[in-house]
Batch of 3 targets.
Target 1
Amino acid sequence: MMLEGLFQSPTSVLLLGTILGLLILHLLYSSFSSQEKEQEPPGPRPLPLFGNLLQLDLNRPDKTLYEFSKKYGSVFTVYFGSSKVVVLAGFKTVKEALVNYSEEFGDREIAPIFYDLNKGHGIIFANGESWKELRRFSLTTLRDFGMGKRLAEEKILEECHYLIQMFDQHKGKPFDTLRPLNYATSNIISSIVYGSRFDYDDHLFQTLVKRANQTIRITGSATVQLYNNFPRLFSWVKNRQQILSNMEAAARDIKELVKNLKDTLNPHICRGLVDCFLVRKQKEEASSVMETHFSDTNMIFTVANLFSAGTDTTATTLRWALLLMAKYPHIQEKVHEELKRVVGSRQVRVDDRKNLPYIDAVIHETQRVANIVPMSLPHKTSQDVIFQGYFIRKGTAVFPLLTSVLHDESEWESPNTFNPSHFLDEEGKFVKRDAFMPFSAGRRMCLGEGLAKMELFLFFTAILQRFRLTPPPGVTEDELDLSPGLGFVVNPLPHELCALSREEL
């Protein structure tokens, strides 16, 4: 009786209709949302506010994500706080996305810390026409100044001389290889960018290298990751403040170096990339180009990007290579035996690589095992895309998980073991492997790949030709720790090695 009376008034009927309408709309929306969700990549259930952060090892998130891929598949979703990320895992999936869908997955996701640093300028953490123009210019200029050619080879061979001198100074006693290797690789990119190298005892040079190393290391810290996920809450963290301070100081130093080059500029003879940039800038200003990307700001950040990337990644790989040689002396001796048999006592040249297959295999295997940029640099979808049956919305952050490529169990016979045979056939000849992707792939792959390969080969062979690397006295090979350190670029843990002159053995 009460229900009958309740629905007799017009107001009650209107209220009931409204409630029923809202219920129908809710069911329709829920149905639509569930259908859309079914099309999106699966993943672990996120928590409010935190997303999946509490499930991740923030010091090595790539490890957790690799484990997730075994449960959720090669395309899956995780939430870093409230930010949605699609992770690509395994060689076939990463290659398909970055190569076959290069346009769709070709934008750069710029985390808050990298926007703070670059403001969308430069060639690494940038998008759009500015990025395209500056990357094209940088790639062309690097090639003009010898990247992958004889001119760059001569610069590296000259630097080998200074690097060997620095190793010799320790007279077989334990030392950290970090500083000399960073100086050597920094000087190669400096000679290409500025047109000349620095002396190792140059205070400005030492400061530039130390600052760049520190910035890259703490950018991968847990506190900076917290800032990236909750920028309003964690803008105060010490590591973020240090990174910003480092960038301001680096910009001042670069401006001073550029000013000196500008004062002595000869438009007809470019000494390095900065000169080429200045000449291009003058031409565009003279022709009144309305929207030039060749501004002072873009020059500073392009130089800073090249210096950091050209220093840390190659030096880090070389540190891993020398540590692995000390860890596995039988492999080191095979490297030296091949050098002695094929090259003898003369200086190794790039052309020798084809006759040194074992050494080539050792360097490639070092890059695979070292895995120094395990999650690559984050990408972002430039448009809505259907990929492997899943819908990924425009503007979604995408992580190509290089750990899952370089350790793909379906591609590598012993993925978790240092095994140069991965790159050798039964006759001992070097073989390329499709799943070897340390420089990433597609339109965002490392533009300095050719230079890095040349540096790795020439520096590594120069050192191994002259020295035998051993653990410090009292430390056995088994006690050398191959655990990865923390950082945006993954270095070995702090350690010392002895470089014993083979002439004195």
Target 2
Amino acid sequence: KASETVGKVLKRGDIVIYESTVYPGVTEEECVPVLERVSGLKFNEDFYAGYSPERINPGDKEHTVAKILKITSGSTPETAEKVDKLYRSVITAGTHKAASIKVAEAAKVIENAQRDINIAFVNELAKIFNRLGIDTDEVLEAAGTKWNFLKFKPGLVGGHCIGVDPYYLAQKAQEAGYHPEIILAGRRLNDGMGEYVAHEVIKLMVKKDIPVKGAKILVLGITFKENCPDVRNTKVVDILHTLKDYDTNITIYDPWAEPAEVKHEYGWDSVKELNGVTDCDAIILAVSHNEFKSLDLNILCKEKAIIYDVKGVLPKELSDARL
């Protein structure tokens, strides 16, 4: 649709630059033919294409667009240079001119796939260490003293980048006749973490003789990441759906998320203020918003209650368990 819109106003000599994360080949094999069909112009004769993948970290006030090095590319060497020069004029961190549009597309999609796989690895470690009675954070802290150890933490992997983009590459790989084992294994593991957290909370409640059916559970946070209002593809809803199966009464508190958007996207009611919420049987810190770090959780819950810290930001003595 975007290509159709651009194609209607395309004129000779124009360069169309795409930024969306895609699998290798989308710009030239999927988008350009649409531009040609709608405009009636010929690619690399009448108009040209570029690709410069978006690099932005939602909610990050330090790593803003101009401060993040940008990959650029073009459909001809001359176009690539023009595109690179354009971005260099605004990106103070500099640019990297890729050899081709497909290389630039592939580079972007593996950035997110790499993070996804590494987080899946530590999520699996968290599951293993939980069974062994070992503190995952303490293990990662000890291992992190080695200079080349990659410091990832377990957690929910949602959002519109890391939780989605690996599927693009997997799809393209399968079209080429290759089944991507590691990429899809990482996706499966990460997609199951919300359900895992919910079941861990239920098990802890049973061990403390807290009746599960009708239990009051407070979930802190529903956005896909901390200090950010974005609820797209949030995996907190997986926790909610699983807890709902046990007939629990859930309150979702998130000062960042818009209740109307949460209701529209997922059908769940959420609140931006904690008015009158007390006597909780369980509290799940699902997103580490700054506001939650100073909350007095003890006044929100019963004396015999479960506090589960998904993000590992609460003092260890305050929580019953963490991911």
Target 3
Amino acid sequence: MLEWHHLPGLAPYLDTLSAMEARADAIARGDAPEAIWLLEHPPLYTAGTSARLQDLTDPHRFPVHEVGRGGQYTYHGPGQRVVYVMLNVGERGRDVRCFVRAMENWVIAALAEFNVTGEVRPGRVGVWVSRPERSGPDGQPAEDKIAAIGVKLRRWVSFHGISINVEPDLSHFSGIVPCGIRDRGVTSLVDLGLPVTMNDLDVALKSTFGRFFPDGGLRPDGANPALCAG
């Protein structure tokens, strides 16, 4: 059994983080089912375990929270769908790499519902879109990040998860070097010219979830090649 829960309004970060960790602990104990929480936060920056201080370029702009998830600095704020993913990876094969790749593929499939081609890049966690109308620093078509992924496992239960840009204020990303990558930008569904609402994205996430997490989690035998493709 998997529970989907929508948190209305702008969820306070620290209170939500505490509740998420408590739910992950309950899942590990067998006292609660796996869960997906869909929410938005007020504007803030988070620092993952690999964050470098020099990548926080405007430390006084928004609150900064150090968190235990993987990754570097990220932004959360209104117009961005945050997806907290609390799944029992211990019962789904204990393959962390496979789990992260499944989440990337899930985001890519959800974006495809809006005819957006999301892609992953070696050495760069997250989902990217090509911007052929611009050239990048290497002369190739520019790429912008549309979704970030950062997870932590405790007793083989995941928490934290995904953030997908629907219509955030993209200027808010300028206070950090997002995910430590200086030569790439960020984008959103609306920035790409698509009138997508938060509810539209939620529908796409729910409809595609089962392709990569059958029965609410990773298939234990790893038989689904889509989980770890690439």
